[in-house]
């Protein structure tokens, strides 16, 4: 633990105080394969091969050498990833063995949440009537997985788009009132990775949703976004392509995320606004990030 504290102290001093932003969070998209066909996602259609075990180990070793200490696995659906007899649990164990401090997993929840990871982020975009517009008729299965015992800490990712924006408040109250066993809900906005489609909300349309989320924070509802992160997202005042984060897949590595540069001005990837707000030492962002690290 002393080594971790020393690392974070050095990282904060150099990145947040001196402005020399250092690597911190590394992602690996293990596979493009997925059992769902969600609106707004074309990753499974790419047909690319999975990351192999040898590639994964090389990526992690190189990331560790460059200073990254937090890692997450995504996809596609990372629960589907295999290389021979090795699966996601082995990938989590590898990251820990190499020296990463925390391992997170992003999943659609339909394969359960059993994993040795430190935290699981599960996608739930609203209650029935809203959820299926983006992800299909799988709400009951995902809810059951979240409520099942025996899995690690869990948090929800809710993607706000034109079909899900009206379900935000009811979902948050449901999470609170039914005591869904999660840390809270982190809200993203649909990013036009593949072009400006019918799901996309521009800055003017996002603003009232963000104002609603700020009000939900004041009400004590389980929003994981910080006030500083939400304000940065509302006004577009945050640095794109922060070198604190990188993600790799079978084709190589990208700074921040796998989206093309042209959509950066309209990015809704709220995890990055949280990182940038924390780098600016905004108290609400620093405190919010401590909840899931």
Instruction: Please count the beta strands (DSSP E, at least 2 residues each).
Output: 10
**Strand proportion:** 15-25%
Give the overall average pLDDT. 93
What is the architecture at the second tier of CATH? Alpha-Beta Barrel
Explain the overall architecture:
The chain has helices at about 1-15, 55-65, 90-100, 130-135, 140-145, 170-175, 205-220, 225-235, 270-280, 285-290, and strands at about 25-30, 70-75, 80-85, 85, 100-105, 120-125, 155-160, 185-190, 245-250, 250-255. The chain is an alpha/beta fold and about 290 residues long. The strands form 2 sheets. An 8-stranded mixed sheet has the order 8-7-6-5-2-1-9-10, sandwiched between helices. A two-stranded antiparallel ribbon has the order 3-4. The longest helix has 17 residues, at about 205-220.
Topology record:
Elements: H1 2-17, E1 25-29, H2 53-66, E2 70-74, E3 82-83, E4 86-87, H3 88-98, E5 102-107, E6 119-123, H4 131-135, H5 139-147, E7 153-160, H6 168-177, E8 185-189, H7 203-219, H8 227-235, E9 245-249, E10 252-255, H9 270-279, H10 283-290
Parallel strand pairs: 1-2, 1-9, 2-5, 5-6, 6-7, 7-8
Antiparallel strand pairs: 3-4, 9-10
